[in-house]
Structures are given as C-alpha cells and as structure tokens.
C-alpha cells in the first residue's frame, strides 16, 4: 500500500474533526444564543462536503488494509462524533504504518 493512501486519510480525519468541532460551536451559538444562523449554515455545508471526501479516503484505506466491516463502519462514523476522529486516526495510523513500510524516514542532511 502506498503511503499517500494513509496520508490522505490522516489529513481528512483531522480536517473533518476540526470542522465538526467548529460546527458544534456554531450550533451552540445558533440554538443557545440565537446568533450566527448564516455562519452555521455555511459551516454545515462545508463540513458535509469535507465529510464525503473523508468517507471516500477512509473507505479507500480500509479496503486496501482489508478491514472488517465493523472496523470500517467505526472509522467511517468517527467523523460524526466530536473528538472521536482524533483518537481513531491515531489508532488507525499505528495499525496501518507497518503496511506502508514503517515510519517516514528522516530527511537526509545535506
């Protein structure tokens, strides 16, 4: 498996997790303080689009890593639970690293 498959997943896991936290904050302001309805709408649209990209990359990684259906489902759903994607991403990275040839080599000094 290529390292780029894992890297794409990791980037989208972090982006999706951060956007979900931003969306949760917007929802608190919208429903708790009756402020920011337009911002909440925009953030929800962006998060939804990015979550679809996350699903594609997570599914790609899961199919190449030959995950069970249950594990794949948990990874896919972790993008909908605040803070979960951060923890799931770390666990997935530790498990998939051996499949991509170990950690990234250090840059050689010139």
UniProtKB/TrEMBL annotation:
Major location (coarse):
membrane
Tell me where in or outside the cell this protein is found. Answer: Cell membrane
Q: Does the keyword Membrane apply?
A: yes
Spans through the membrane:
12-33, 39-57, 69-88
Q: Which GO terms describe its cellular component?
A: plasma membrane
**Keyword entries, A-Z:** Cell membrane, Membrane, Transmembrane, Transmembrane helix
Q: Which PANTHER family match?
A: MEMBRANE PROTEIN (PTHR40077:SF2), MEMBRANE PROTEIN-RELATED (PTHR40077)
Q: What is this protein called?
A: DUF3817 domain-containing protein
Recall the taxonomic lineage recorded for the source organism: Bacteria, Bacillati, Actinomycetota, Actinomycetes, Kitasatosporales
């Amino acid at each position: 498996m290529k390292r780029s498959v894992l890297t794409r997943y990791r980037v989208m896991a972090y982006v999706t997790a951060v956007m979900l936290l931003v969306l949760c904050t917007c929802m608190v302001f919208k429903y708790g303080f009756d402020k920011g309805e337009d911002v909440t709408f925009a953030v929800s649209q962006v998060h939804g689009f990015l979550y679809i990209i996350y699903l594609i990359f997570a599914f790609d990684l899961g199919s190449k890593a030959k995950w069970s259906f249950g594990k794949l489902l948990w990874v896919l759903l972790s993008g909908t639970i605040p803070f979960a994607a951060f923890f799931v991403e770390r666990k997935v990275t530790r498990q998939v690293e051996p499949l991509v040839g170990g950690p990234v080599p250090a840059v050689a000094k010139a």
